[in-house]
Amino acid sequence: MRSPSQDNTQGSIYISGGTFDITAASDAIQGTTTVVIDGGTFTLAAGEGIEGTNVTINDGTINISASDDGINATNKSSEKVCITINGGNITINMGQGDTDGLDSNGDLTITGGTINITGQSACDYDGQAQKTGGTLIVNGVETDTIPNQAAWAASDSNTQTATNFFINILLSKDLRFDLKRRSLFLHQSFVSSPVHVFTPPNSATLV
Predict the structure, then answer these.
(1) Cα distance between residue 29 and residue 8, in whole Å
(2) Cα–Cα distance for residue pair 76/80, rounded to 1 Å
(3) Which of 69, 164, 180, 183 has its CA 20 to 30 A from that of 18?
């Protein structure tokens, strides 16, 4: 189901009720600007369940099986990029790999409803996240905060960078031991002047 217009000031989808059983290779429900769901029963099996620039869910029973993102807000128009969940019962089952239950390239707000996400990454947002109500369950565990896969990815990247740096130090021929000062110093390959790396305690045995 797609909005008929690709104009970034048009192309909205509004659903207030009904029953929808959609299987799609790409997006089950896609709006260029806004997607607003006030009710209905949805069974969605697709690459992405619901996509729009601004996605708002106020009510309804929504079951999503997705191989990419369950609900995705991305910059497709001049609307504010945001996912807002005020109510409803939402169940999202994610496929393996780089997939997110709720993926917003902007903000993510939860004020009500029940969201049950099963998958490697529950939420991924680039802006601000706020949870003032509702129930969020991730892999069977209820949480009061909204986790962020983007923050974990950045943390993992920084950790990997630091790890690689110290591995290179350990493999470097410029890591030298000063017998007089009983200390390791790093020389020219990595820094402009020798840097103190490690001094063993007095009780340590030097081999």
Answers:
(1) 17
(2) 10
(3) 69
* Residue pair 53/77 in contact by the 8 Å Cβ criterion: yes
- Cross-strand bridge partners of residue 124: 103
Q: What SS3 state is found at 179?
A: coil
Burial environment of residue 150 by CB neighbours within 10 A (0 to 12, 13 to 18, 19 or more): middle
DSSP 101-146: EEEESSEEEE-SSEEEEESS-SEEESS-EEE-SSEEEETTEEESS-
Beta carbons of 135 and 142 less than 8 angstroms apart: yes
Q: Exposure of 86 by Cβ count < 10 A (0-12 exposed, 13-18 middle, 19+ buried)?
A: middle
190 phi, psi to nearest 5 deg? -110, -25
What are the residues whose beta carbons fall under 8 Å from the beta carbon of 171, sequence distance 6 or more? none
Amino acid 96: pLDDT = 82
pLDDT per position as a tens digit, 127-174: 999 999 999 999 999 999 999 985 544 444 444 544 555 555 555 555
Distance CA 82, CA 102 (A): 10
Strands 41-46, 48-52: pairing is unpaired
Kindly report the backbone phi and psi dihedral angles of residue 84, in degrees, each rounded to the nearest multiple of 5, phi listed first.
-125, 125
Identify any residues that bridge with 103 across adjacent strands, giving them in sequence order.
72, 124
Q: In angstroms, how far apart are the furthest CA atoms of the chain?
A: 82
Pairing of strands 27-30, 114-118: unpaired
